[in-house]
Write a structure and sequence with these properties.
With 177 residues, this protein is mostly helical. It has a domain of 107 residues. It is 52% helix and 0% strand. The longest helix has 27 residues. Pfam families: MST (PF04978). This is DinB family protein. InterPro entries: DinB/YfiT-like, MST-like.
Length: 177
């Protein structure tokens, strides 16, 4: 598969596209955060906690994973903030999990809180700022820039939103946008 050519140009950005890269990245991240929540909205709890896929992950596990991804990359990664169990989305075998007894509303609230904190962090730094050493990254030299981290988060969301498209279609026939 090749990239765009003169015959298949990239689509024009919408007229309300933010004028700078920083705001554009943050706007797309918010779009995908909202997309994930929209794809989960209306699914019964049994569908949120059950899996329709051979790999066995559930939509609720994916949402918790994304909350932990936000925390790993922005708080622990970019700020080097001490966080308890940065890999809390995984069980001892490395599989995503939601602890027994955790309500759906708790997972959604956790996701929203981590996204809000990430927004604050990203808004207060320049794209060229490097992650602080001492958290996820031992040295300043190995630490990525905020731009790299935001692009990484964006690709993570885009990929998982696609996964949720498939799960939602299997669950109730709803087709993603």
């Amino acid at each position: 598969m090749t990239g765009p050519t003169a015959e298949t140009p990239l689509p024009e950005p919408p007229p309300d596209t933010p004028p700078d890269a920083h705001r554009l990245l943050l706007a797309y991240l918010d779009y995908y955060r909202d997309t994930v929540l929209r794809k989960l909205a209306g699914l019964p709890e049994a569908e949120l906690r059950g899996s329709r896929l051979p790999s066995g992950w559930t939509p609720l596990e994916l949402l918790r994973h994304l909350a932990c991804v936000e925390r790993r990359w922005m708080r622990w990664g970019f700020l080097a903030e001490p966080v308890e169990d940065p890999w809390a989305d995984r069980d001892d075998g490395g599989r995503w999990h939601v602890p027994d007894g955790t309500a759906v509303e708790e997972v959604v609230a956790h996701f929203r809180a981590e996204c809000a904190r990430s927004r604050e962090i990203a808004a207060s730094a320049a794209l060229t700022d490097r992650a602080a050493p001492g958290g996820r990254f031992a040295t300043r030299e190995e630490a990525p820039t905020l731009a790299w981290i935001l692009f990484h988060l964006l690709q993570e969301y885009a990929r998982h939103a696609g996964h949720l498209d498939v799960v939602r279609e299997l669950a109730d026939g709803e087709v993603g946008e």
